[in-house]
Amino acid sequence: MIEREQTDFFLVEAYNAAVRAGAKIMEIYTRYDDFFVSLKADSTPITIADKEAHTLIKNHLSVTRIPLLSEEGRDLYYDERRGWDLFWMVDPLDGTEEFIKRNGEFTVNIALMVDNAPFLGVIYIPTTETIYFSDPDRGSFCKTGIKPDIDSACTISQIFADARRLPVVAERNTPLKVALSRSHESNQVRDLIRQLQDQVGEVRIVEYGSSLKMCLVAEGAVDCYLRTTPTSEWDTAAGEAIARGAGVRVVALSGEPLRYNEESLENPPFICLTRHLSGYEWQQ
User: Fold this and answer.
1) What tens digit of pLDDT does each residue of 145-176 get?
2) 8 A C-beta contact, residue 17 and residue 60
3) Contacts of 279 (CB under 8 A, 6+ apart)
4) What is d(CA 193, CA 81) in angstroms, rounded to the nearest whole number?
5) 3-state secondary structure 243-283
6) How far apart, in whole angstroms, are the C-alpha atoms of residue 160 and residue 141?
7) Angle between helices 233-245 and 212-219 (to 10 degrees)
8) What band does 37 get if pLDDT is binned at 50, 70 and 90?
9) Cβ contact 192:226 at 8 Å
């Protein structure tokens, strides 16, 4: 069992690591003409910002003496990590394609995993200076005006000062809003949206990159986020911690919870939905 003092320590370290990584990413984003883009084994892009943010976060979180599983350090054998009961799950730059497009919709994702489930999460959006974070006892929160800072050293009291408890929007949007990926979509998503329209009426589609979509559901700014194209565990861990802390349901389309630290590290199709859609049934 993690005590309150330990939880505060972990949240402080994750929060500051995210803000520091955001500063490194923004330095590259604003000053570099060439992001040194290459392709990983799965044909997804990686930039110098991904690599440098990963290194910064790994070094900062080393003080916790907890193992780290990161998108940019994923070459860990399953037999090595399968017995972990406490570890960090990190995506140092979620939304690399959006970063390359320079549309600002990218995030830093850090989650603390306990018994292979998200325990607390931090998501930082450096372009809008917005940070989301969750605490297993206090709930989920959002703060704005958090500037990228390579020397960020906020205390637990500073982290919670002026933070807004999520959800910010307590009622269903009219019309209902569904978030989709800006860069990844499928015909299956369109079929599911038609089902939703048949049950609830008008639906407005909004498109965003990265884990920002899960944060918007946690806020209540959108009511649902559907994803049927491939994602990995580090894409969702921090977002799920924040969403659940705001009362949002996050499940595979089969109805099962998302599972973490699996051998493949790839998520099934999933949905995030606010309590206003708790009675909706998906037909796959």
Assistant:
1) 999 999 999 999 999 999 999 999 888 899 99
2) yes
3) none
4) 37
5) HHHCCCEEEECCCCCCCCCCCCCECCCEEEECHHHCCCCCC
6) 8
7) 10
8) confident
9) yes
